[in-house]
Amino acid sequence: MSTSASLSFARDIRPMFTSMDVDHMKKAMDLSDRASVFQHAEAIYESVSSGSMPPPSSGEPRWTPDMCAKLRKWQEEGGQP
Ligand code: HEM
Questions:
Q1: Cβ-based neighbours of 79, under 8 Å, separated by 6 or more
Q2: How remote is the CA of residue 59 from the centroid of ligand 1, in Å?
Q3: Has residue 3 been placed in a domain?
Q4: pLDDT digits over 18-28, tens only?
Q5: How far, in Å, CA of 54 to CA of 62, rounded?
Q6: Ligand 1 center from residue 67 Cα (angstroms)
Q7: Which end of the chain is more exposed for a tag (fewer CB within 10 A), N or C?
């Protein structure tokens, strides 16, 4: 395993979701909750890396490759709180 400090949901992942994201996705998943994001991490990664989420029509910027990589790394590290 990596010896570098691991990513934290509260510090690194949660701030990447806007309140609009959390509100709009509430029925499907809770983007403000570590367990929910970890459970759906694969689908979330697919949607943000393909640019389908957040929808361009929402006016929110597309996630950068750095943001996507951060989500992926956090998932691989076991989804630390
Ligand atoms: C995990 C898989 C996801 C699925 C299956 C999903 C699905 C959907 C669906 C069906 C809608 C409503 C229709 C639409 O506006 O296209 C929607 C809206 C939205 N989603 Fe997602 N979503 C996912 C992840 C995400 C993520 C990770 C974000 C943010 C990073 C996000 C942000 C939004 C926003 C902001 C809207 C509202 C768009 C608007 O009303 O203008 N979604 N999503």
A1: 9, 34, 37, 38, 41
A2: 12
A3: no
A4: 999 999 999 99
A5: 7
A6: 17
A7: N
Say if residues 71 and 41 touch (Cβ distance below 8 Å): yes
Nearest C-alpha neighbor of 64 from the set 79, 48, 43: 48
* Domain hosting residue 35, numbered range: 9-76
Is 4 contained in some domain? no
Is 24 inside any structural domain? Answer: yes
Domain membership of residue 23 (yes or no) is yes
Question: Token pair for residue 68?
Answer: 């996507």
CA of 77 to the centre of ligand 1 (A): 25
> Sign of torsion, CA 53 58 64 67?
negative
Reported pTM = 0.93
Task: Name the residue with the closest Cα to ligand 1, atom 5.
Answer: 43
